[in-house]
Amino acid sequence: MPHQPRVSYAIAPARPEAHIFDVTCTVASPDPAGQVFRLPAWIPGSYMIREFARNIVTLRAECGGRPVAVEKLDKHSWRAAPVAAGRALTLSYEVYAWDLSVRAAHLDATHGFFNGTSVFLAVEGKTDEPCYVDILPPDGPALQTWKVATTLRRPAGNPLAAPAMGFGLYYAENYDELVDHPVEMGGFTHARFEAAGVPHDIVLTGRHDCDLERLCSDLSRICTWQIELFGTPAPVDRYLFLTMVVGDGYGGLEHRASTALLTGRNDLPYVGMHEHTDGYRTFLGLCSHEYFHTWNVKRIKPAAFAPYDLATENYTRLLWAFEGFTSYYDDLALVRSGVIGVEDYLTLLGKTMSSVLRGSGRLKQSVAESSFDAWIKYYRQDENAPNAIVSYYAKGALIALALDLQLRAASAGRKSLDDVMRLLWQRHGLTGEGVAEDSLFALVAEVGEAGLKGAGRRLSRWLNDAVEGTEDLALDEFLRPFGIEFRAEAAAKGASLGVKLAGGNGEAKLANVFDDGPAQRCGLSAGDVLVAIDGLKVTAASLDGMLARRQGGEQVTIHAFRRDELTTVTAELAPQPADTVKLASGKRVSAAMRALREGWLGS
Ligand SMILES: [Zn+2]
User: Which of 330, 196, 327, 219 is nearest to 269 (CA)?
Assistant: First the structure.
């Protein structure tokens, strides 16, 4: 660091009971025309305009102890009046932090968490400059045991530098770096493990009975496998899993050297738990997903994100590659690193396939369109989402799977999607050059050609059709050379009404009504509450049981409330759709199939 940064921030968990962080931003040489400050409208990794500035409660500026006028320019920008040359300008503001998600900020008497995008105003014209952040401790004896967990750097040689996991001075090379290292403070649990020689920390906030030894051992295998996939050295010299443990919750957000996670308490392993629960597999899959982003999206990134414009939507048609391919590798890393078995992996894969099959939106929207419109569709799903939207996560993962299987089969196992990822890493991750909207197709052609003449161009065309089209992927065909059978069957016996109920065990309230299903055809809508079928009371808990005793084609009389008004309709039930995918090892698996499968799944 050549000299004292000209931008410095301080943040204090000032009033935990009111969920208020006090923040200051001091600019040594503000813009002589009046310094503009701006808070991001969104956080990278979560593609929705969130307008974090709505949580700024009060804001004032001063210079040499005198107040400076501040003008609001738009929803997230302020301009301070010009100050005398050579004088520093300090902005002080309060941020309301009561969003228990991985995307924003949260503060109470038990802990504090923030993403820089929620709390640090960018100093316009100086976002490329280095800055200091003084993370201040809370007041009050009860909170004196709080520690700090973050991958923000500590300024070497500065006497005010924070001690390891302590309050004090931190440092960022520029604003982009400043807001890409979330910070947790509190009395958290901490454990450390190594992967490929790199220290990895995991921090758990909230009450839990986690078997840390087990968790560290499993994470170490997953992280090591991923580092080896892309090649050593790892892109980070340390990594941090920041985990908020709650009763019921799920979420993750990737950062360049850390991730913020939200998980249910019961999804963590406990001492004496020998098997893998579904919840624990889900949590490991989440950790694996966010960790894979360390390469795929944090360093290999769409040209549209290089650099990010945090004031407005950043459009790309490539989220199927950055989120979908990451979703493919998250569970794949679990089986390839030996943390789960092949049978468990095939079950997970079947679930992803089922989730895509269950939405007719897949027949209307391509994953490229879903990527582009993430800001208004995938991230803002309503009751019609299953009929209108395809997930670029789930279908993107299936496209990655199909591409991987075809590359392997065409080249007799010599080439795979791993080669595509490594090429992306070398060409884009290591160079910082963004991935152009169409460059992935050429890259696949190149890898494919190196494996087998003609396969590259064919697979490149296939990929283009798959991401731009809405046809179902021929997954059964792609799995066959690996000796794996694909079966799509009905999830349950009996008949279907073509609805999904809202959560909870109470009334049978319709969350979604599927296009062209029995419920839609007879006039039922999302939000309606079913009260009786053929004169018998129906609840959320009893609906499936009632339908299980019926057959497709049967007519039933349904009583339902809409806006408190009772209506009666006659529905013709449909057969249960065959939308539950089961994958299993085939009966006759040749040596060639076995070799391909071993190359793919590691065993
Ligand atoms: Zn992701």
Answer: 219
The pTM for the full model equals: 0.97
What pLDDT is recorded for position 142? 76
pLDDT of residue 160: 94
Q: How far is the CA of 324 from the centre of ligand 1 (A)?
A: 8
Cα of 333 vs centre of ligand 1, distance in Å, is: 15
Specify the amino acid at residue 126.
K
Enter the DSSP assignment of 270. Answer: B
> Is residue 269 reached through a cis peptide bond, with omega within 30 degrees of 0 on the bond before it?
no
Confidence of residue 545 (pLDDT cuts 50, 70, 90): very high
Alpha helices in 469-506 (DSSP H): 475-479
Share of the chain above pLDDT 70, in %: 99
pLDDT at residue 1 above 50?
A: no
Q: Provide the residue type at 360 as one letter.
A: S
Average of per-residue pLDDT across 573-578: 97
Question: Separation of 291 CA from ligand 1 center, angstroms?
Answer: 9
Gyration radius of the chain's alpha carbons: 26
CA 401 to chain centre: 19
Mean pLDDT of the chain: 96
Pairing of strands 508-513, 499-501: antiparallel
Distance (Å, whole) CA 323 – CA 330:
10
Confidence of residue 2 (pLDDT cuts 50, 70, 90): very low
Q: Residue 186 forms beta bridges with which residues? A: 111, 147
Enumerate residues with CB within 5 Å of ligand 1 (an ion): 323
The rounded distance, in Å, linking the Cα atoms of 420 and 448 is 9
286 CA distance to ligand 1 centroid (A)?
Answer: 9
Distance of CA 387 from the midpoint of ligand 1 (Å):
23
